[in-house]
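Hi Q.,

Before the meeting this afternoon, I wanted you to have the FE2/S2 (inorganic) cluster prediction in hand. No need to reply - just skim if you have a minute. The sequence and ligand are here:
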Amino acid sequence: MTRLVELEANGPRKLEPADIDDEKGDIAVCQCGLSDEFPFCDGSHRRTRDEDEGTTYVYADGERREVERVVTTDDADE
Ligand code: FES
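Predicted structure with the ligand bound:
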């Protein structure tokens, strides 16, 4: 599967000692790109569990859609 998400940050987030989860004692960094607490995992990755290999998904406005392909503005000129 491929997943397309929109991220608005344009710089790094420095992790601080206060970012450590008091109960678990760790820092969970989001790798799926769907967390509302990005760069930290908030459990939103559970939404990806039924994704199929070979399918491209777009997550936007709280919904998931399957798409054939993604066309960028650069591609649209071709
Ligand atoms: S890995 Fe992205 S929300 Fe958990």
